[in-house]
Amino acid sequence: MRKSKLVRSVIAWLLLSPLIVLTLFPFAVMFLTAVKPRPEVLSPTWWPSEFRWSNFAEMWVATGFGRALLNSLYVSVLATVGAIIVAIPAAYAMSRFRFAGYGAMRQFLLISQMISSIVLVLGLFRLIAAWGLIESTTAVGVVYMAFNVAFNVWMLQSYFDTIPRDLEEAAWMEGAGRWLTLRKVFLPLCLPAIAVTAIFTFINAWNEFIIALTILRSQENYTLPIQVFALVAGRYTVEWHHVMAAALLATLPVAVLFAWLQRYLVRGLALGAVK
Amino acid sequence: MYSRALPYLLILPSLFLAAVVIFWPVYDLVQISTHDVSRFGQLRDFIGLANFAALADDPDFMAALWRTGLWTLSVVAGALVLSIPVAMILNSDFYGRSVARVIILLPWAVSLTMTAVVWRWALNGESGMLNSALMGLGIIDQNIQWLASASTAFPMQVLIGVLVTVPFTVTIFLGGLSSIPDDLYEAAALEGASGWQQFRTITLPLLKPFINIAIVLNMIYVFNSFPIIWVMTQGGPANSTDILVTYLYKLAFRVGKLGEASAVSLVMFAILLVFTMIYVRLAMREREA
């Protein structure tokens, strides 16, 4: 009575195909423009006459890609490590202690998760300017850290809640202190959740636009999104093959990371959002 | 004593970080918006709500406000209508499902800035690959200058907004669909319910809490979304594709009207708080049910 799996597969792929085409379209545009020889870039053909791989090396030098890459790495690592270090104790406290401010803290986390940096950008700019930190990639990293703390605590707490207390209590019975138990029993169990949370913070920071656009004003401090945007905005001639090569190189690592990890996120979100 | 204070000590760092980076700016914005302020940010006299009144008289602001509503509603509705069937297909068993899943969720990982830069190039009037693709398919016979006027630029921006919102929405629905037990469908099929009836009486009602949450969260994200419009048109031509976030950015960092810019921020902040309250309500009702 049920249709065979083959028939269902064909139907499913057919139904999904318009969306898949639209999703892959930007990637195709990126790739095909990036490998076109320069004279062909402005001619509206799809396929390049030859694949000019040297465009990538040329772009690397011409756009200062390496420096932007280092800035992006620095900012994202700072945000990721900082957010996780601050969030683990908070999530642990919220998962394992009963205390008076618990409800207020949950509300606070929720609200700070809803507020995006764009709404506060003027206030943040003034805060950072008051400390003389305009142009500081460190300041940008710390702002990302702060905006990701709520998400981190939220994700980690929902995972910590799923770990049975018996394990820790058993360790206490054996005479291990709270700190030792935390280090030897609890945290090793949470390592996968910590890793996934950290990687998503990293992707968020890697892709952030508005704070970097506002705070980082000279090219040597640009992160990748700002660097790529600067190659396009307010220029009379745009070297589109360089822009697309840079966009592709900046996108590929996180896209691969994401493709590999997306099912963990699906699970984590399902735990966090509906619980 | 020690262990009583412990949980507070543990949450203190995150509280402190968020307070400095989130609440200080909010406080500062309230200060600026209620004072006369110089282009360089010096506060002068207290002027109450004059900055807000100036906004209400500013046709560009009012236009951006309405456009933000249109932008948010169309992107959220578009993503919703597209995501329900897509999630249902991805939840069914077929060959290559995990590949299809990765492809459809992929835009999530790509920075909105990069997506917008690529589309800006693809929509280029003379050399853009969209025009050449559409011409090749015989759909259009001359180049369209997509970004030159709001009547074509804004719908394209909405379309791109929908495309980048679908992955998150699908993810939420996949979580919801996997919680619906299969035997419900089997029982319904035994009773002779058609596919459409099954969808209406089983899938939709059981998915409803997830739909509600997806709507509210997407409203918040889309309302705040800056890069798509900024990178593609910077709100132009002549402010005709501005939404609140891009207008705010121009007021603050191009025109230097800091008082009005902070007033826009606070208006947005208030709207976001309303969204958040709706979300909390929904999440609480969900827990009680």
TrEMBL record, chain A:
Alphabetized PANTHER family for the sequence: MALTOSE TRANSPORT SYSTEM PERMEASE-RELATED (PTHR32243), MALTOSE_MALTODEXTRIN TRANSPORT SYSTEM PERMEASE PROTEIN MALG (PTHR32243:SF50)
Listed transmembrane segments: 12-35, 73-95, 107-131, 137-156, 185-206, 240-261
InterPro entries: BP-dep_ABC_trans_perm (IPR050901), MetI-like (IPR000515), MetI-like_sf (IPR035906)
DNA damage keyword on record: no
Membrane topology recorded in Swiss-Prot or TrEMBL: Multi-pass membrane protein
Keywords on record: Cell membrane, Membrane, Sugar transport, Transmembrane, Transmembrane helix, Transport
Protein's name in the database: Maltose/maltodextrin transport system permease protein MalG
Family per similarity comment: Belongs to the binding-protein-dependent transport system permease family. MalFG subfamily.
Upper classification of the organism: Bacteria, Pseudomonadati, Pseudomonadota, Alphaproteobacteria, Hyphomicrobiales
Pfam family, one: BPD_transp_1
Subcellular location: Cell membrane
Purpose of the protein: Part of the ABC transporter complex MalEFGK involved in maltose/maltodextrin import. Probably responsible for the translocation of the substrate across the membrane.
Record bears the keyword Membrane: yes
Domain ABC transmembrane type-1: 69-261
UniProtKB/TrEMBL annotation, chain B:
Species per Swiss-Prot/TrEMBL record: Mesorhizobium retamae
Annotated family: Belongs to the binding-protein-dependent transport system permease family.
Residue span(s) of domain ABC transmembrane type-1: 65-279
Location, primary (coarse class): membrane
Superkingdom as given in the UniProt entry: Bacteria
Transmembrane segments: 7-27, 70-90, 102-122, 156-177, 210-232, 261-280
Matches recorded under PANTHER family: ABC TRANSPORTER PERMEASE PROTEIN (PTHR30193), INNER MEMBRANE ABC TRANSPORTER PERMEASE PROTEIN YCJO (PTHR30193:SF37)
Membrane topology: Multi-pass membrane protein
Keywords associated with the record: Cell membrane, Membrane, Transmembrane, Transmembrane helix, Transport
Protein name, per record: Sugar ABC transporter permease
Pfam family, one: BPD_transp_1
Record localization: Cell membrane
InterPro entries named in the record: ABC_transporter_permease, MetI-like, MetI-like_sf
